[in-house]
Design brief:
GO terms for molecular function: acyltransferase activity, transferring groups other than amino-acyl groups. The chain is of the alpha+beta class and 255 residues long. Helix content is 36%, strand content 21%. About 3% of the residues have low confidence.
């Protein structure tokens, strides 16, 4: 039986590899695939370059990686957000970078980000994707306002990624167990905004569904579904459902 992965803090040097892995992990996600055909050329790799440096330097976020106990390979990552806690209460892992990312690393990340920047195309192509992003963003913001008003003490998952070749090897289980154990110890509850593919992993870790946001992707699609992505031979992108889940006992109770 393989040893469980070792949990270590993410560093700036890890970002390029994890940006690539995140993009690969979402190659099977229908919403992400569809967005990739839009004018903005939605790219999970670029999204990681945009967000990861902020996670590393934000004291309200514990950004960790699961490392193979024998090879040292990074198997996955999880970014945990903390709401309503004081800096000394946030349980950062030993070795967490406490200062700003150095200028040399920032320049390298900026160069990588620029290399993957999207090329603007006709506005009519990206209108549907922009509308989808706006509507999904509004729904997420509504949930955030309901669940995390001023004074709330809780945890939330900013992002969870498992490197494709390490999927179904207990990586998400180890990353999520750190969070649920932490919540239990600190008397906090957790919530997450989950993609379709990740829902079962959260439920296996003890999370319970509290709401959904479902959308017909064909109403926003810039192109018809290509044959290689038309797995059910329907000729449609189909419906996509975001699930909101929570863990533990907290102030927020679903209606």
């Amino acid at each position: 039986m393989a040893s469980p992965p070792i949990l270590l803090p993410m560093t700036a040097a890890d970002i390029p590899d994890m940006a690539k892995a995140t993009a690969e992990a979402f190659l099977v996600d229908r919403q992400t695939i569809m967005k990739g055909y839009g004018g903005d050329k939605y790219d999970m790799k670029q999204e990681t370059y945009n967000s990861a440096p902020g996670y590393i330097t934000n004291w309200k976020v514990v950004y960790m990686k699961a490392v193979h106990s024998e090879t040292g390979e990074t198997m996955g990552t999880c970014a945990w957000g903390f709401r309503g806690l004081q800096p000394e209460e946030v349980p950062h892992l030993p070795g967490t970078e406490a200062s700003k990312i150095g200028p040399e690393v920032m320049k390298k990340l900026a160069d990588e980000k620029k290399a993957h920047a999207p090329v603007e195309e006709e506005q009519k192509v990206k209108d549907g994707i922009a509308r989808l992003n706006n509507e999904s963003g509004e729904d997420l913001n509504d949930w955030m306002e309901k669940m995390m008003p001023d004074g709330t003490r809780c945890m939330y998952i900013v992002g969870l990624t498992v490197v494709p070749k390490f999927q179904r090897q207990g990586v998400s289980k180890a990353l999520l167990k750190w969070g649920t154990d932490t919540a239990d110890r600190l008397g906090l509850w957790i919530w997450v905004h989950s993609s379709e593919g990740a829902r079962t992993a959260y439920e296996a870790a003890g999370f319970k569904p509290i709401g959904v946001w479902s959308v017909d992707l064909d109403e926003y699609a810039p192109v018809s579904v290509p044959p290689e992505h038309d797995h059910d031979k329907s000729g449609k992108w189909g419906r996509y459902t975001i699930t909101y889940l929570s863990y533990g006992k907290g102030r927020w109770v679903p209606e």
